[in-house]
Design a protein that fits this description.
Length: about 325
């Protein structure tokens, strides 16, 4: 390869990231993908966030998006050009001036159990102590195993895993995070969506940039790593969360999958769970969506029609399911 002359080579894309091991591996993967897809140089910029500093319980920390807020401020202030977030930690309310330009291919969205002695949820000892900081996971654990003692835990993935060698029998974590950290060996059971409905957007990353950069070379570079099936699925999942007016720590789960065919079908399962594990309201629904090939053709010919002809199908599926759930008392069940 011949190096372009320095005068014409654009400055590296500066990609903002949180400093945790998980955030760094995630951002490195995205940075490499953008670099490979666009041929541009990329560099990582570390941004410290309140969520990383505080050891307070996640559900008591200043509300939605503590992890995302500092990264977004850095992006708006021009300290970086692109921010990489875990989608499930991103509030559904849009930030003026910022746009999620790419949702790359998502990893396995499911939750997993990491237990002592290779145990599964069904064969944990009576009254076992299980750690999670997530009201959604706690409610579903109690639903299947009312005898468990569910403890609120915090900290990064390694810290939480270590507790299974100390005072806990098990912890529940996102499979995607363990995959990225090379820690899949610690998984003793992958929990299906019928047992543990994942958080909306779990396993997906969101690549955000300033809206003003969308139509330029930066937007063009980032959009290359967008993945249609992921975008469809997470739009439906997050529409559930938004319509229920629930935050990212509410006991709400949603999981959508795309099934091939002519037309393709997007299937959504959504649920709200009473914190004590007593009640649950779970609904499934599906809708026809254009095939990936049709979406690619539209993106080429009439990109302005994508919202109307593609993405709205997913959003409306999520809204419809959430509205049905609200009519059946979802807000009361989940304590929203
Ligand atoms: N809330 C913390 C968080 N944010 C994203 C992930 C994992 C990866 C993902 O879901 O994208 C995790 C850890 C976990 O829930 O186990």
């Amino acid at each position: 390869m011949t190096a372009p002359t320095p005068a014409t080579r654009p400055a590296p894309l500066r990609i903002g990231t949180r400093g945790s091991d998980l955030a760094l591996t995630q951002t490195t993967t995205v940075a490499e993908a953008i670099g490979a897809a666009s041929g541009r140089d990329v560099e990582l910029v570390r941004i410290r966030t309140e969520g990383d500093r505080s050891s307070a319980s996640l559900s008591t920390l200043g509300g939605a998006g503590v992890f995302a807020a500092a990264l977004r401020e850095a992006l708006l202030a021009g300290e970086c050009d692109v921010a990489v977030h875990s989608l499930k930690d991103l509030p559904t309310v849009p930030t003026p001036g910022l746009t999620v330009a790419a949702l790359p291919h998502r990893a396995d969205a499911r939750d997993v159990l990491c237990a002592r002695d290779g145990r599964t949820l069904a064969d944990l000892p009576q009254g076992a102590r299980v750690g999670t900081g997530s009201p959604r996971r706690a409610a579903q654990l109690r639903r299947h195993r009312p005898d468990l003692e569910v403890l609120d835990i915090r900290g990064n993935v390694e810290t939480r895993l270590r507790r299974t060698e100390e005072d806990l029998h098990a912890v529940v974590l996102a499979r995607a995070g363990l995959t990225r950290l090379g820690l899949l060996g610690r998984v003793t059971e992958t929990l299906g969506p019928d047992i543990m409905l994942p958080a909306p957007g779990q396993g997906a990353l969101a690549v955000e940039c300033r809206t003003e950069d969308l139509d330029g070379p930066l937007g063009e570079s980032v959009r290359r790593i967008d993945h249609v099936p992921t975008r469809l699925a997470v739009l439906a999942e997050r529409a559930v969360l938004r319509t229920l007016e629930a935050g990212c720590t509410a006991p709400v789960g949603a999981y959508a999958t795309l099934h091939d065919g002519e037309p393709a079908r997007l299937e959504l399962r959504a649920g709200v769970f009473a914190p004590d594990g007593g009640e649950a309201l779970v609904r499934t629904a599906s809708t026809a969506v254009p095939t990936e090939a049709d979406v690619a053709a539209l993106a080429e010919e009439t990109p302005d029609a994508l919202d109307e002809q593609v993405w709205n199908h997913a959003v409306q599926l999520g809204e419809r399911v959430a509205e049905e759930m609200l009519a059946e008392g979802a807000a009361k069940v989940a304590g929203l």
